[in-house]
Amino acid sequence: MTTLWDTTGSSVVRALAAARHHTGSVSSGLALTLVAVTDGNLVAEAEQAATAAAAQHPCRLLLVVRHALSAPQARLDAEVSVGGRLGPGEAVMLHMHGRLTLHPESVVLPLLAPDAPVVTWWFGPPPTRIAMDPLGTLADRRITDASRDPEPIEAVRMRAVDYAPGDTDLAWTRVTMWRSLCASAFDSLAGDVRALAVSGEARNPSRALLAGWLQAKLGVQVALEDTPGPGITGVRMAVGDSEVRVTRTDGRTAVLHRTGQPDRVMPLPRRQLSELLTEELRRLDPDEVYAEALATVTGVSGLEERSARRTFVWFDPADPGSVA
Amino acid sequence: MTGAAPRAVTNPLRDPRDRRLPRVPGPCALVVFGVTGDLARKKLIPAVYDLANRGLLPPGFVLLGFARRDWGDGDFEQLARKAAQEGARTEFRDDVWQRIAEATKFVPGSFDDGEAFDRLAKELDELAVTHGTGGNAAFYLSIPPSTFPVVLEQMRRTGMADNAATGAWRRVVVEKPFGHDLASSQELNRLVDDVFTAPDVFRIDHYLGKETVQNLLALRFANELFEPIWSRHHIDSVQITMAEDVGIGSRAGFYEGTGAARDVLQNHLLQLLALTAMDEPVNFDAESLRTEKLKVLGAIALPKDLRSYAVRGQYTQGWLAGQRVPAYQSEEGVAPGSTTETYAALRLDVETRRWAGVPFYLRTGKRLPRRVTEIAVVFKRAPHLPFSGSDVSDLGQNQLVVRVQPDEGVTLRFGSKVPGTTMEVRDVAMDFSYGEAFTENSPEAYERLLLDVLIGDASLFPRNEEVEQSWRVVDPVEALWAEGGKPELYRAGEWGPAAAEAMLARDGRVWRRP
Fold it and tell me: Which of A51, A52, A304, A314 is the most buried (most CB within 10 A)?
């Protein structure tokens, strides 16, 4: 591992090349570059999740830590590791201070693995408009997390307004196991869908997306029921003359109840951040099913017709009137 | 490698564009015969746990054990829990196990006990109601092949193998050996296919569940780069190796009558050969893959001079990995003067336009220097080298090596200039490594194959015709060896007997050191 204090982007590029030669693994599998964007408070958590995900998908990991914009001097500190603390692959931790936090692409661009897809993941409140973050415009895939926004339901709507193919949100990733369970239950149901309901915390963005998905696929309005949680606590589907209910009140195990059949219990744990990120990195093409669910729950239309490329929009938080 | 539940087509929640939803089988029971055996404890039960932990088992899943033990459900659950704790690849979580434990059943009985099978049939019917399995069941025969007839007969008698009679699907999983020659495998196939319908019979060759073997298909058929040179025009020869550093352990009873050719070459190596040599399948469903593999297996020809191109060996005492190891003849349970081979090497030709004149060299052995399985495709030399002879004296033949295990990945060997002021060319290797660091959490072969059985996807399972074609290749070799003579001796810790080196030297080639 190499640590560089008060350094430049070019020095980091040289240090990474040197580390690669030093370990002898000059070529290995490299499927993508993962750019993880976070701030000083969340760096440990982001590092742990990104490292675990990097252990399953061969990638170059660039951890961009944005420190205070107000720092008097723009400054870059870096840590380069190949096959070390930051996972089995190549990893660079970049601490940015002051005005440099507005120009992180100047350091990141030369560090991207040649011609490999770029995935940017924001760990922290998602950007309101991804086009305002240069690390978003250079990515092929963008991963946000609406649940980290102070107003998560509004954040989901923002994701629809701002959507471009290639965007996904971890609030959507969190409902995969719920969706799998619903699809399995539906396999053995026949008849018209009479009623649908999803219950959970009112401010839970995953509940909104699960409801959006069911409504988009089954064409029936989904009732939302508020409970204390944690997270999503249940789904109810009335189809033909039977009813299926899945309830999970402890955030760990679910009970599947179906008319005329014994109740069945199965594990349905809330997954860790690293597992969610790993699922995201499996596929790098646009998630059309997410777009449908997002459009349905927010009422914003035309998501899939949008261009996958965003044009960078300059914005200076120190000068709010600066949007071009 | 598609294959979702039949209802999936009509389920609006299953969108083909939705790549996140895992493939989850419909409700069913997995019935394991021989639950106390090594395979069940070390591979099968851990695989069931891992599937559950990954959320890949349906809500209506039941694990049912059958063995000659005076046990209740709880005793079996204890054994299974211990097996899962010791063998699972994913983290052991009590609440996940608790769900499996609630749906774990045990039926005691011996294979000739008709009453026990009546109880089993009844239990399966009851599970349809009490656990919502829908009556579906997969029977895993983790038992010696000699007991197959009696078990299958019991299944036939009780009607528990009959899809129509039970109104559900009933499948059977069979482990190798699939017979010991063509006649016995035909007999076995007739027996199994008689009781179950042919598409419901799943023969497990765990090599086909390995990621790298499936990756061979991706490498060949997803790229423009390799397929155009994948023929006699550019390929000189192919070497397929499966080496083990271990001896026979406690398996002398099985191994004495079997030997390396029947144990490994007939199934694993010929399957790898088929995947390497086959033409592009129309698509990746079971039927199309089988069609292409069968074409290759059917086109395999043995050398005319079989005596020179089929080498068998047996290890003598030697040193391996810093330890002294005994000779095969001194292993417990081995008859003195045994002629069972622990090493087999064989040249085969595939008589098609694509492969005419390209020899396929297959070898397998025990007590070789290290455990390694690989497919090495050796290319011809460039037709013209505009360098002086001494400049390229270090240049070998280009190779593409698929490393099946360990250290899964692909290696490409090609010539490169030695840095310096003179033009010298030598071989270098470029590695693609989906290294162990990247695959430790990827599913184990048994996990993948078990899931495929429960889903009903047969693309990774050899069908009976493939097994029979493979015996057609191996039988003449076994017959030749049975005529007399003894295996060539090699020291434990060596790469096989000298005769194997001589066999390639005769063709002007050498074995690659894996």
Answer: A51
Of 3.40.50.12160, 3.40.50.300, 3.30.360.10, 3.40.120.10, which CATH number belongs to B208-446+459-506?
3.30.360.10
For residue A319, the 8-state DSSP code is: B
Residue B3 binned pLDDT confidence (cut-offs 50, 70, 90): very low
pLDDT at A56: 80
Q: pLDDT value at position B437?
A: 46
Segments in B62-210 forming alpha helices (H): 73-87, 94-102, 114-130, 148-158, 163-166, 182-195
Phi, psi of B207 (to 5 degrees): -65, -35
Q: Where in chain B is the domain with CATH 3.30.360.10?
A: 208-446+459-506
Domain extent listing, chain A? 2-170+307-322, 176-267
Give the mutation candidate from B11, B28, B94, B97 for the A interface (greatest A CB count, under 10 A).
Answer: B11
Check pLDDT > 70 for residue A324.
Answer: no
Helix, strand, or coil (residue B501): helix
ipTM of the complex: 0.83
Single pTM value for the model: 0.86
Give chain B positions within 8 Å (CB) of A55.
Answer: 437-438, 440-441
CATH of segment(s) B6-175: 3.40.50.720
Helices (H), ranges, A195-299 = 205-218, 273-282, 288-298
Rounded CA separation B275/B272 (Å): 5
Residue range B430-440: mean pLDDT, rounded: 61
pLDDT tens digit string along B446-497?
Answer: 999 999 999 999 989 998 899 999 999 999 999 999 998 899 999 999 999 9
CB-based burial of residue B124 (10 Å sphere; 0-12 exposed, 13-18 middle, 19+ buried)? buried
Q: Average the pLDDT over B103-108 and give the result.
A: 91
pLDDT tens digits, A57-71: 888 999 999 999 998
Cα distance between residue A15 and residue A1, in whole Å: 10
A126 pLDDT more than 60: yes
Backbone angles phi, psi at B94, to 5 degrees: -60, -40
**What residue of B is the nearest CA neighbor of A271?**
B54
Q: Which positions ≥6 away from B480 have C-beta within 8 Å?
A: B306, B307, B310
Rounded to whole angstroms, the Cα distance separating B2 from A96 reads: 47
Among B11, B15, B53, beta carbon nearest to A187: B11
Which contiguous run of DSSP H or E holds residue B307?
helix B306-309
